[in-house]
Amino acid sequence: MPAANLRVVPRVPEKFALLFALCLATLLAGGCEGRNGGLQTLEGDSLDTAGKVLVVNYWAEWCAPCREEIPELNAFYREQKGRAIVVGINFDQLTSEQVTEQARKFEIEFPLLAAAPPGRWGQAVPQVLPSTFIIDDRGQWRQTLVGPQSVASLAEAVAAVHPQ
């Protein structure tokens, strides 16, 4: 056999192989949760969203329509606990302490997420506030509601993806 046909295969250092294996294991383990699973509140609690529609509201302190919408979101959260879960995400990505203070100030009763789930539901961060994502009980994005919502409009959006 001529020597020109032989190839030298570079050896992967063991450190890199181990690092790759650990990263792969972490990714696989994280992918075992449901698409809605793994949402963490500001308090560090995990939300159980199995079988429920997720109503994800993006809000900010400086957004007057967001502040006006909060009582409607609170009422919907209280009325729909068994069927839908309302969660809020602060658009400005403030610290947990700052968001907690704003939540107290605006009397937000529904859970607030510690951070926006990156790439979750295949949607970009909204550029208009308030915006509300409707995520069905299988973890799939179904609709984005733009502007302040009422209990009735939220109930209609949830009913469209999860009839009783």
TrEMBL record:
Start and end residues of each Thioredoxin domain: 28-163
Annotated localization: Cell envelope
UniProtKB keywords: Cytochrome c-type biogenesis, Disulfide bond, Redox-active center
UniProt-listed SUPFAM superfamilies: Thioredoxin-like
Pfam family, one: AhpC-TSA
PANTHER family documented for this protein: THIOL:DISULFIDE INTERCHANGE PROTEIN DSBE (PTHR42852)
Protein's name according to its UniProt entry: TlpA disulfide reductase family protein
Naturally occurring in which organism (per UniProt): Microbulbifer bruguierae
